[in-house]
Design goal:
- The structure holds 2 protein chains of 2 kinds.
- The two termini of chain A are 22 Å apart.
- Chain A has an 8-stranded mixed β-sheet, with helices on both faces.
- Chain A is an alpha+beta fold.
- Chain B contains 12 helices and 9 strands.
- Chain B has 2 domains: 193 residues, 3-Layer(aba) Sandwich (Rossmann fold), CATH 3.40.50.700; 49 residues, Alpha-Beta Plaits, CATH 3.30.70.
- In chain B, a hairpin with a 2-residue loop joins strand 8 and strand 9.
- The chains are: A alpha+beta, B alpha/beta.
Chain lengths: 295, 298
């Protein structure tokens, strides 16, 4: 499989919904698609990264209204364990058609839950829409706190928006201050599990989206599965997105491909290095577990 | 009845008092047609089906009920893919028969000679032996038994079945999912009856579940610590917490926290974790495989 995965079309797009544009990280693709799917009855609810009792810590939430979707819009650069609710959504919430958004590893988890439903009773045919977001690496909440409060010297509760782009981690505060730090300084805070991840643009999602490759305020969208294609066509027909062909935007698909190749090459090296990290008594290497080979 | 003669009974009247109409087709035609129909209806599907049995040891019957929880899917399985040749209450067969796939439910009580004997028979008489459910695979809640329980207070030694016989495949969780056993049944059918492509697919699909059987017969929420987090593999997706059948796992700041007193040692969290195994050859083809299974069940 190509580093960008299988896809039927790649488009640069942004939402035409003004409410969503105001809250969105970039093009507002995920929020708009879920709002459309809720409206059309394609999903009964969506598992999203909702607000919690701590600033910038997302809490997995089942959103069943556009207001709840808007409350969850925008990127939080830390873990939201959305799979936590995947069975709960079909049982306690009684949803027959579940939408879920996740980073690439979470979409992998969704597909594993569908193909090997070990403990995921009655879940496999209830995943109606799995939306993926691009992800280079992720941070624990405490790591995000260290970055924002120690490095950028801003209080978590005073931050209005966080953004990654052009080699910088940027924090915008409510009162208009802008703090930046070089992206390479955050690498030491990245959670270890991300170093073996071999997926950048959520190859197994129905539709995946992220800012890379498109101009500011726009997102690069990959429409991948049959299901994804139907939903995307429907949303386009309803006039929910403004689009441009990928070959007419800067920096374009080449940048997405470059970053995907970089991530996967680097992490494949990490996976390989695990095989020889230790030493056996006979002088041969001793390895750590490789999840891509066996449990 | 008094006064009633045998001659007055309507049934006793001779049936063919009137001349019969000429049959529209010759009797020989009818015989030939019927024969062809019988051949098509009976022999073709039966010859291709695999045989599946369920051996019930020290379990709660939840695994067997789970098989039935496929509802109409179970009928489809039994119509087209598998004959159920042995199962508690569902099949009237007393002794363990020969079978392609044997699903073993429950752990094995060493104090019960019949359990040990039947388990060995099941191993000898089946091509594929599946530890069906957490008790068979890992002991599950029977790990907590120390004897003294009604109505067999003398029974206290319960072991996962792989301590007594070789096991080919694990299907953990308590109970396992109806969809999981359905998928395994369809894949076993493809493995034993399919063409080369189907055999390859089934082999690829079943491989991690076979590797799980080689990994060991103990399971616990601790596996998430030992084999995922301690190994530097956890990325906080939340799958383990979502899959736990007893809600013993919560996510605290993006990492699982296991309430070990609540954990029943079913192995679902680790087996479901995308970082216990993730086989790209199967997963990348998820759309095709799910469509194929859906198609097979229609």
């Amino acid at each position: 499989m190509d580093v960008l995965g299988n896809y039927k079309s790649a488009i640069s797009a942004r939402s035409t919904d003004k409410d969503i544009q105001k809250k969105a990280q970039d093009g507002g693709i995920i929020t708009t698609l879920f709002a459309y799917a809720l409206e059309e009855g394609i999903i009964d609810g969506a598992i999203v990264a909702g607000p919690s009792d701590e600033p910038w810590r997302p809490e997995p939430t089942v959103a069943t209204t556009k207001a709840e979707l808007l409350a969850a819009a925008g990127t939080r650069y830390t873990i939201s364990p959305n799979l936590y609710l995947i069975k709960e959504a079909t049982r306690s919430y009684g949803l027959d058609r579940v939408g879920i958004v996740g980073v690439p590893c979470q979409i992998q988890a969704v597909r594993k839950a569908q193909l090997y439903p070990i403990g995921m009773r009655d879940v496999d045919d209830k995943i109606a829409l799995a939306l993926g977001i691009y992800c280079m690496e992720n941070l624990s909440y405490q790591a995000l706190e260290a970055i924002v409060e120690d490095h950028c010297n801003q209080k978590m509760e005073s931050v209005k928006k966080m953004d990654i782009g052009k080699g910088k981690f940027t924090v915008y505060t409510e009162r208009g201050a802008v703090s930046q730090m070089p992206l390479k300084l955050i690498h030491k805070y990245v959670q270890p599990g991300c170093h073996v991840c071999l997926d950048y643009v959520a190859n197994l999602a129905d539709i995946s989206s992220g800012s890379v490759g498109s101009p500011d305020g726009w997102s690069t969208v990959f429409v991948r599965s049959m299901k994804g294609n139907e939903v995307w066509d429907g949303a386009m027909a309803a006039g929910l997105f403004e689009t441009k062909p990928m070959d007419q935007v800067k920096p374009g698909l080449d940048l997405v491909k470059k970053l995907a190749t970089e991530k996967i090459t680097k992490n494949q090296k990490n996976v390989d290095a695990r095989k020889t990290v230790g030493l056996k008594a006979d002088g041969t290497p001793k390895g750590l577990r490789n999840p891509y080979e066996s449990p | 009845m008094p006064g009633r003669t045998p001659e007055s009974r309507p049934e006793a009247k001779p049936a063919a008092s009137q001349p019969q109409a000429k049959p529209e087709v010759k009797p020989s035609d009818v015989i030939v047609n019927e024969k062809v129909e019988v051949v098509q209806k009976e022999e073709k599907p039966v010859a291709e089906k695999i045989s599946i049995g369920e051996l019930h040891l020290s379990g709660c019957t939840g695994c067997l009920v789970t098989l039935a929880d496929n509802y109409e899917g179970l009928f489809k399985l039994l119509d087209d893919y598998a004959d159920l040749v042995y199962a508690l209450t569902l099949v009237d067969v007393r002794h363990v028969p020969e079978m392609d796939v044997c699903l073993v439910e429950g752990s094995c009580c060493l104090d019960d000679k019949l359990s040990v004997e039947e388990l060995k028979q099941a191993r000898a008489k089946s091509k594929v032996l599946v530890a069906y459910g957490a008790c068979a695979a890992y002991g599950n809640i029977t790990r907590f038994c120390r004897g003294g329980q009604w109505n067999q207070p003398g029974h206290e030694s319960y072991v996962p079945i792989s301590e007594v016989v070789d096991v080919d495949l694990f299907l953990p969780s308590c109970p396992p999912c109806p969809q999981a056993v359905r998928n395994v049944a369809v894949m076993a059918y493809l493995l034993l009856r399919g063409n080369d492509d189907q055999k390859n697919l089934a082999t690829a699909y079943l491989t991690p579940l076979m590797q799980l059987a080689q990994r060991g017969d103990t399971a616990c929420g601790c596996d998430l610590m030992y084999d995922v987090i301690n190994q530097g593999l956890c990325m906080g997706c939340g799958t383990c917490a979502g899959t736990c059948p007893v809600r013993a796992i919560t996510m605290e700041y993006g990492k699982p926290n296991v309430n070990r007193d609540q954990c029943i040692k079913c192995g679902a969290c680790y087996a479901q974790c995308p970082r216990s195994w993730f086989n790209f050859d199967v997963m990348n083809n998820y759309e095709g495989i799910m469509d194929a299974i859906k198609g097979a069940m229609q």
